[in-house]
């Protein structure tokens, strides 16, 4: 039984996060470069300037974590990568794939009222999220058949 894999990544969050990360790096590098001695008597050293650049990189890295979510589904199961951590869930454990009303992202329903959020399928993506859910459900139907 051959089923085509489904791979989904969020779209809108990537379009927002990447420019923000770039802006943070540029702003903090610029501030670090322009950081000099002031007429108030405050003295900024080279280490302070470097620290500003590093702070910009750290903040940009934090913003880029928002682009990390991904969903891979194939005949063996689901691989859900959220902001922190990746889980592999076999289809035998999946009781359903839902998108509750008002929820920011989809989720996989598991036994005993547990669930795993699928941050790769976000409500803000609109039609892309609808297409992803349809593809995922079609894959499951193909596997169950």
UniProtKB/TrEMBL annotation:
Annotated ranges, domain Low molecular weight protein antigen 6 PH: 68-138
InterPro entries: CFP-6_PH (IPR019692)
Pfam families to which the protein is assigned, alphabetical: bPH_6 (PF10756)
Chain ranges passing through the membrane: 16-35, 50-67
Domain of life: Bacteria
UniProt keyword annotations, A-Z: Membrane, Transmembrane, Transmembrane helix
Protein name as it appears in the record: PH domain-containing protein
Species for this entry: Saccharopolyspora endophytica
């Amino acid at each position: 039984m051959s089923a085509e894999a489904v791979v989904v990544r969020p779209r809108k969050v990537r379009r927002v996060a990447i420019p923000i990360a770039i802006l943070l790096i540029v702003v903090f590098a610029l501030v670090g470069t322009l950081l000099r001695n002031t007429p108030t008597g405050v003295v900024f050293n080279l280490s302070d300037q470097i620290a500003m650049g590093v702070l910009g990189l750290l903040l940009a890295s934090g913003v880029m974590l928002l682009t990390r979510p991904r969903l891979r589904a194939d005949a063996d199961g689901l691989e859900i990568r959220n902001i922190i951590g990746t889980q592999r869930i076999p289809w035998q454990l999946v009781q359903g794939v839902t998108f509750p009303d008002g929820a920011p992202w989809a989720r996989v329903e598991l036994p005993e009222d547990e669930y795993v959020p699928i941050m790769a399928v976000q409500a803000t993506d609109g039609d892309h999220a609808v297409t992803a859910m349809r593809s995922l459900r079609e894959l499951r139907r193909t596997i169950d058949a």
